[in-house]
Every structure is written in structure tokens, then in C-alpha cells.
Amino acid sequence: MSTAILTGQPVPGSSLESDLRSLGFDVRLADEAGDAETLLAAVPADQRVAVVDARFVGHLHALRLGLTDPRFAASALPGAVSVQPEARRALTRAVARESSAPGGLAVATDNLAERLTTALDADGVAVFRPELGTLVAAVPADPQERNEVRQAVSAVDDEAVRLRSAVKARDGFFTTYCISPYSRYIARWCARRGLTPNQVTTASLITALIAAGCAATGTRAGFVAAGLLLLFSFVLDCTDGQLARYSLQYSTLGAWLDATFDRAKEYAYYAGLALGAARGGDDVWALALGAMILQTCRHVVDFSFNEANHDATANTSPTAALSDKLDSVGWTVWVRRMIVLPIGERWAMIAVLTALTTPRITFYALLVGCAFAATYTTAGRVLRSLTRKARRTDRAAQALADLADNGPLASLVARATRVRLGAPLLVALGGTAVLAVSLFSGVTWAPVAGAVVYTVTSGQALYRPLKGALDWLVPPLFRAAEYLTVLVLAAKADVNGALPAAFGLVAAVAYHHYDTVYRIRGNAGAPPHWLVRAIGGHEGRTLLVTVLAALLTAAQFKVALTALAVAVALLVLVESIRFWVSSGAPAVHDEGEPA
Which of 19, 22, 35, 459 is the most buried (most CB within 10 A)? Predict the structure, then answer.
């Protein structure tokens, strides 16, 4: 249980003590600074502790936002401050200084919480101050002001505010107008029954997997059920985040589950559609794999661009200014959000087309829509990069290098080669072009030669920091090269089961790349070097797949792809789960995933 130390004399008629208890605090009273210091020392070191001015008047949800958010080591609002164990020492020092200051015992109730907040700031502790909006939080100085503040509190329905704030401020059109108006009430229903966001996230995954199973039946009834269940899975997907914001049940594990399960649900559904089509005599595995590759590469473009620019200096451009102007025109905001086909619009389209048409038509529409969205967003980011004069930091360059996922072969080439071939992006483009030509040459060993050139250029591309205007395109270029190599060689094998095995391999590798992104965004760095070496890096896997395709028969190649998929999946999943459930996992504050 958390502890709240209430400083000063309780105000008659105040509901503060009961409000704090309803938020899970054990309330202790302190009349003097010495009392506060004694009470603070008695609180176990692993508990949250808050110091609240007894004169505080405000909404219950304001107290909830200011005192219970688990994402921040210290947080405050007028008349109240709260710290978690990692900021406990700083609070203890501040209270000790207050009690030992001249007259400290006598002035303990004179806005102690405000002085402690100031002391924490001065001590270098990052104190989070929530944006309250229409919510009220104040420390009235006299009865007249207290009555005015209480009237202000009565004028605002904090439950309505709490429900509104449970919905993300920036979301897609379909989510905003077709899901959130009622999913927020589902979130409140879950909160009142003690359900956690992780439980709702898991329910969303299970629902999507059942939807994939229905699609795999290949019957019209199965397709209709699959479409409905996919939509319901998305409702639950929105609900888990809204529940987290409604009840402030944030967690590192929850952020990771929400992000990874979204990808698992969508790609498992693709597999279900492909299985259902096969039951009807239509082989669409190449389309399913192509859709997964396109969607993953879109995300890598998003991640790479954002990592390259989020801490860059002089980061402005005419293109960005035009985008800001368009955002001031209401209807253009929704059009631009819809044409990038975010998860809400995308899942709605997939669900409707599954129920009404065939898997092949569904994949055609998905590929066309995602290709247009990828072209639109990538072109805009290229224009921004070319017109802005951003100076990228060493951290951004390292993040891009980690996203590149170079393995031991590329690293060896980079160390052993004395000749430098050119700018990173041009070198990567050259190697990728050679690899692409070799894949369609019709010569058995040509892809192996192309993969060797690709390996050399992969090492060369990272010989210097990726700080060029368009160097953020290097990681998505590598992703496309590796994934498409697997797709092309599996399709050329022309044996039953090769493309499903390729789908599994790309899914396992894509999971590793998403895991890398989430670690970098949490400032935890890339996965350990041993893991990257063990699974070969992108160039090592690409070379291995081309060698296997050249050496083995089609049936043997299928078995080899399956074995490789299982090996990569086991390694990356075990290490990823170990990391994200450990105490060293980063506190992920981001609540939104890209399209």
C-alpha cells in the first residue's frame, strides 16, 4: 500500500482523507516537519509516498493523475507531491532540510508540499506535472477562496473528464468515430471489475487468433465470423489502452505486450486467410507474405525517420511548415490520417473484405492500399529530409546503426576492407540492386554471388555514422532486401509448403526487428551482441538462404526454411521475454504505434 502524509490541520468538511484512501493510500497526519520526517522514515523503502497539504481542494481525478501515475519517479500538482522508491532519497533529504531549518518545526504546515516539490527540482529530480485542463487542484488560503474553489470543482464532472482523457488525443478517423465513443465505457466497466489492461490485451490477442482460425476454415460462414471477430479484437485493442489511461495502470510489460501483440494478431490473421484460401484451391501465400513484408517495412520507415530526427537540431523545413498549415484545416487532418491506412482503417477494410469477398481480393486491396500509403508517407519524409538542414546527433546515428542489424559478416568486411566505396545510402542501394538482379537472373548460383556483394556493401554502408540527410533509409532498405530475398526464393522453389515456411521465417525475423525498435525507443539500446551474432544479422541470413536455395532440392529447401524459422523464433523470443520481464526493462511512455 502507498502512504500519504497529510500535513497541517484537517479542514472541516474536507473529503481529502477519504479521497486519498480511495486511491489506495494509507493516510498519516503530520502537524510539524519533525512529524513528517518521522512518518516518512517509517514508510517501507519500496513503497510510494505522497505529501499532501491538508488544505488541498480539487477533483479526485486530479489527485489520481498527480499522485498515482506509475510511469514517473516523482510527480506533483498544487499542494501535493508523490515519489516512487527511486526518488525516495531526494524526498527524505528535502524533508530533513525542512525540519532542521530555523523555525522548521513551527512552519511545517505552511505549504510544505510546494517547498518539497521545489527542493526535488533543485536536486535534479524530474518532477512530472500533469496537464489538468478543466480539472481543479488548489490550496485555498482562506475560507472565502475555499468556497470559490469548491464551486469550481462542482462545476466540472471529473468522471466525464476522466472518460474523455482515456481516449488518445491523436487517432485515426475510424478509431475516433467508430470505436472510441463506446470502447471508453467498456474500459470503465473493466476498471470497475478489477480487470487489468494486460488481461484485455491478452483477450484481444485470443480473439484475433480465433478470427484467424475462422478464416482458415475457408467457408463463407468462417470468413464472416472472422471479419466480425477481427473487429471485436480491435475494439478490445483500443480498450486496453483506454483502460490503462482511465485507471493509470501503466506498465513496461503492458506497453511491450500491446505493441507486439498488434503485430502478432495482424500477421496471424494473414496466415489464417492464406490457409482458408488454400482450402478453396487458391494459393495466396505469396500475397500474404508480401503484405507482411510491406507492412513491416512501412513501420521500419516510420521508426528510422523518427529516430533520426527526434533529437536533431535545426530540424525545420518548408515541407514541415506546409504540413503544419494543412493541420490547421480540419478536414485535411482526417483525410491525411485516413490515406496512410492506420491500424483502425486497415483492420476495418480487412474485416469487411474478408466477410464479403475472397482472401485474394482482400490481399490485393491491402497491398494496393498499403503501397499507396507507404509511397505517400515515404515521399513526404524524403522531401522533409532534403529541405531541412537538420544536424543529427551521435545518439540518432547509433540508433540507425542498431536498426540496420548488421551481423558478424558485415562487421568483418567493414574492419577488413580499406577502400571506402561511397555514401552509406548509395552503397546500400548498390548492393541491394545487385542482389535484386541476381534473384531474377535465372542462374542457380547468381543469388549467392549477389548476396556476397550485398554482404560487402552492408559492411561498407555503416563504415561511418549515418548522419546524412537520407541515411535513415538504410535500415528499411536492408529490411526489404532480406525479406524479399526469402519471398522470391521460396516462390521460385515452387513446392508446396515453401511459402508458408518463408512466412514463418520472415515473421520471426520481423519480431526481432520490432523488438530492437522498442528497446531503442525505451533508451535501453539494441539487443545483446550475442543474439545478433547467433541469428547472423540481416546479411548473414540473406547469404545463408541463398546458399540453401542453391545447394538443396526444393523439398529440402522447404525443410531448411522451416528449421531456420524455428531456430530464429526460439532465440529471439526467449531473449526478448527475458529482457522485457526483467527489472532492467525500460519504462515505455509511448502509447501509440505507427500505422
Answer: 459
> Which helix (DSSP H) or strand (DSSP E) does residue 223 occupy?
helix 220-247
**Cα(340)–Cα(452) distance, integer angstroms:** 36
pLDDT in tens, 46-79: 999 999 999 999 999 999 999 999 989 999 999 9
Q: Collect all residues with Cβ–Cβ distance below 8 Å to 293 and sequence separation of at least 6.
A: 480, 483, 484, 487, 506
- Measured CA to CA, the distance from residue 355 to residue 352 in angstroms comes to 5
Q: Count the Cβ atoms, other than its own, within 10 Å of residue 43.
A: 19
399 neighbors 307 (Cβ within 8 angstroms): yes
From CA 252, how far away is CA 440, in angstroms rounded?
A: 44
The answer to whether residues 117 and 96 touch, using CB atoms and an 8 Å cutoff, is no
Instruction: Give 150's pLDDT tier (boundaries 50, 70, 90).
Output: very high
User: Could you tell me the pLDDT band of residue 586, with boundaries at 50, 70 and 90?
Assistant: low
Phi, psi of 294 (to 5 degrees): -65, -45
User: pLDDT at residue 593 above 50?
Assistant: no
Cβ-contact 460, 417 below 8 angstroms: yes
More confident residue, 309 or 161: 161
Whole-number Å distance between alpha carbons of 365 and 194? 41
Are the C-beta atoms of residues 538 and 411 closer than 8 Å to each other? no
pLDDT tens, position by position, 318-328: 655 555 555 55
Name the β-bridge partners of 2.
Answer: 25
Burial of 323-335, coded b for 16+ CB within 10 Å and e otherwise, reads eeeeeeeeeeeee
Which tops the pLDDT comparison, 581 or 418? 581
399 in Cβ contact with 520 (< 8 Å):
yes
Would you list the DSSP string of 132-192? -TT--EE--SSHHHHHHHHHHHHTS-HHHHHHHHTS-SS--HHIIIIIHHHHHHHHHHHHH
**CA quadruple 560, 564, 565, 567: dihedral, nearest 10:** 140
- Quickly list DSSP for 419-488: ---S-HHHHHHHHHHHHHHHHTS--TTHHHHHHHHHHHHHHHHTSS---STTGGGHHHHHHHHHHHHHHH
Where is pLDDT greater, at 420 or 26?
26
Give the residue carrying C-alpha cell 523439398.
Answer: 555
Q: Please answer whether residues 518 and 512 qualify as being in contact, where contact means their C-beta atoms are separated by less than 8 angstroms.
A: no
> Percent of the chain having pLDDT more than 90?
73
Check if the beta carbon of residue 448 is closer than 8 Å to that of residue 546: yes
Mean pLDDT of 137-144: 92
Q: What's the mean pLDDT in 579-586? A: 75
Q: Which of 232, 349, 212 is nearest to 276 (CA)?
A: 212
397 and 413 Cβ atoms separated by less than 8 Å: no
Burial (CB count within 10 angstroms: exposed 0-12, middle 13-18, buried 19+), residue 353: buried
Nine-digit cell at 557? Answer: 529447401
% of the chain residues with pLDDT over 70: 92
